[in-house]
Amino acid sequence: MVWTLFLRYVVTLASTFLVLGDPDSAQLDGAPPSKIAIIGAGIGGTATAHFLRQHFGPEVRIDVFEKGAVGGRLATVTVNHQDYEAGGSIIHSLNLHMQDFVKQLGLKYRKSVAGKTAVFNGEEFILEETDWYLLDLFRLWWRYGISFIRLQMWVEEIMEKFMRIYKYQAHGYAFSSVEELLHSLGGTGFCNMTRRSLTESLLELGVSQRFIEEVIAPIMRVNYGQNISIPAFVGAVSLAGAQANIWAVEGGNKLVCSGLLKLAKANLMKARVTTVSLHTAGESNLYQLDFTSPTEKGTEFYEIVVVATPLETGVEPGISFHNFEPPLPEITGSYHQTVASIVHGYLNCSYFGFPDPKLFPFTSVLTTDSPGLFFNSAASICPVNISTGFRRKQPQEAGIYKVFSQRPLVKEDLKILFKSYYSVQVTNWQAYPHYGSMQGLPPVILHDHLYYLNSIEWAASAMEMSSVAAKNIALLAYHRWNRQLEMIDQKDLMHKIKTEL
Known about the structure:
The chain is an alpha/beta fold. The protein contains 15 helices and 21 strands. It has helices at residues 2-20, 23-29, 43-56, 96-105, 133-144, 147-162, 164-170, 178-193, 198-205, 209-224, 232-241, 254-263, 411-417, 463-481, 493-500, and strands spanning 35-39, 61-65, 76-79, 82-85, 91-92, 117-120, 125-128, 246-247, 267-269, 272-281, 284-292, 297-302, 304-307, 320-322, 335-347, 364-367, 377-380, 399-405, 418-433, 445-447, 450-452. A seven-stranded mixed beta sheet has the order 7-6-16-17-18-15-19.
């Protein structure tokens, strides 16, 4: 009996290693890995699954672990039988990966509903959008001089350089670190922008302090919940996203994530990974993932692992790493808390200086970094499915509002913003890095075939940044697996690509 059990154990162990294969021998004979794990099913993790499938082919088993809902920080809440975005809600027209995902998945662009924005300083509106574009331009020039022109030129120059990444990735080039990626796009200038504050960079550019405080600060508060001391590069990405040419996905942006999982033919593992352990057999490495679900605990072995969820301190629940020698580098930065409150109620227009709500013309209110202001922004929002006859609710009607704040709103706060309300749904996001809490950028390569996708967020956090990181890690994993080192961290890529054509 004991002998029989021993034989079963040996056969099981041998079959495990036969299925997984020897990574080093696989690399030499050109065979792909047998099993790849991705931890996290947000836009970064699901895009990684899609790109890994493209590069490694149909035979590789790809498991995606997700303890919560697919989509991660792309999520919706339901109010009165309609769904509304509670997380990432806008996509820039130059986000080519996201555009390509929507096209491949057969999704549709959501219809846009016009609305006007104003900036509130706690006492009055200091900047108001009108129905006349030329009037808005004149007001900007009158109050801020040519600061807005200098800013626009700066953002466009940065975006033009950033667009190079799509050419590099189309030609198959990858980067072993975020610093290498940024340097390939904008040289030392881009790298320095992750270390210099947005304020410092804009003042040097000739943008006025008044413009920074009254226009730039409100945009940073609504996009990242942080002030103008954030790094210049993430500030530039935020400002690009504040432009008019933005869009969203009909039915909710999270549909991109679930669609990519299906497109990749990935296995969704509804479980939380608790431990990643290194197992060495001869010259080959395997990564053991221990995971738990509501009904069971499990263990699986993989040749390649991509962590697509934050590893920084304070982001719970964390993942433990065992048997790595030397130990993996500790990632010490923290994530910023932003509270999204979806409120169904009547806006208190009197608080903003409009006793008659019928005269309140704005759909979105941004705020300056003023003492006493308890919210970053308040906006009338539209559902993720917009019918042909849809119209936005007027301020005198009960509407759906999204309020961003640094902390959960208490009853006193809600009474200030709303005359009355029917419901409040609160999502407390650890939405993006707390910029300034980390020195330098986290590594992309944690171990031989263990990668960290979210390191890109410390340069800038956005759906497209995660998608760029996903493509880069898929290429990086593929080239490192096949020892095609000439495709990694190449210098002067723009010239190299031109000579290849």
